[in-house]
Inverse folding.
């Protein structure tokens, strides 16, 4: 089984558009969207959810009011100001302490020192993961709830579920749409991958973020390829990027021109190779030929996109 992870180092380079197009060209892939904070691949693939599971991002404190003596020690000890005293709206009832689940970091200090044992640590509701069917193959994706942490842990879960799906269905390729940036979910998305494809753009910001993501990939000693999107906007910057990637031992495997057909495809909710118009689609076909044969060692195919129907 091969794993191709598509990263960008920043948002807005066209990473998801490229991933969706590669999914249309690949033969029977399993797809995964590891951008659990803002999943975009489902917007292109119109997934039909077949199964979903819950995700716990850690522990949160909860006060058992029947045991609480309202001593206030938990409020004093909480470094995150997650516990506060609230006056009762009814004059006949005493006030109570409450835990703000968003502010609580799950450290457990309040539960450890509570003299009445009134605080308990319970698993937090961090989000959900989904296994869906799409026209291009099975898709594993997720949604991290606002304010929750451990996005890297959820990204790792998405990736493992994609692997399980590939093994269960005899699929040869797992194609992963990774999150932007260089943080924990990016590391969780790419560790141990067969190859990493970095999609960049010929701008100053694009080159800077490319340098950051390539440094991270080099740290994990992973094979990496680079694709320059909208390359025809700045030929001088393209030359700088290709020279820099070559110095690091990375390979530039594709150039995709700026093409309004990409936006037209997005409006229709399909990939640009499925739309099969303009200049970007054939450039992505050539990109996939190079990736599949030289980087992933996959069996050569006919390189014809799956029709969007």
């Amino acid at each position: 089984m091969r794993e191709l992870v598509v990263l960008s180092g920043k948002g807005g380079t066209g990473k998801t558009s490229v991933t969706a197009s590669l999914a249309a060209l690949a033969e029977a892939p399993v797809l995964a969207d590891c951008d659990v904070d803002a999943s975009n691949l489902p917007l292109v693939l119109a997934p039909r959810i077949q199964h979903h599971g819950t995700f716990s991002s850690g522990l949160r404190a909860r006060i058992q009011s029947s045991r609480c003596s309202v001593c206030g020690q938990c409020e004093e000890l909480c470094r995150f100001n997650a516990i506060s005293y609230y006056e009762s709206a009814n004059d006949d009832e005493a006030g109570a302490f409450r835990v703000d689940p968003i502010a609580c970091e799950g450290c457990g200090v309040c539960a450890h020192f509570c003299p009445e044992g009134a605080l308990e640590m319970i698993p937090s509701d961090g989000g959900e993961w989904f296994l869906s069917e799409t026209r291009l193959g099975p898709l594993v994706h997720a949604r991290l709830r606002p304010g929750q942490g451990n996005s890297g842990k959820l990204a790792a879960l998405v990736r493992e579920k994609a692997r399980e799906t590939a093994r269960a269905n005899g699929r040869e390729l797992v194609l992963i749409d990774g999150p932007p940036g260089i943080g924990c979910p990016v590391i969780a998305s790419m560790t141990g991958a067969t190859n990493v494809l970095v999609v960049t753009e010929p701008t100053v910001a694009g080159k800077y973020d490319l340098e950051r993501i390539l440094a991270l990939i080099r740290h994990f000693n992973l094979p990496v390829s680079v694709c320059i999107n909208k390359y025809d906007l700045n030929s001088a910057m393209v030359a700088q990027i290709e020279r820099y990637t070559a110095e690091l031992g990375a390979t530039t495997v594709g150039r995709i021109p700026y093409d309004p057909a990409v936006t037209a495809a997005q409006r229709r909710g399909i990939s640009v190779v499925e739309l099969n118009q303009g200049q970007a689609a054939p450039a992505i076909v050539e990109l996939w030929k190079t990736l599949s044969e030289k980087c992933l060692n996959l069996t050569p195919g006919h390189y014809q996109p799956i029709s969007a129907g």
Remarks:
- The first helix runs from residue 15 to 25.
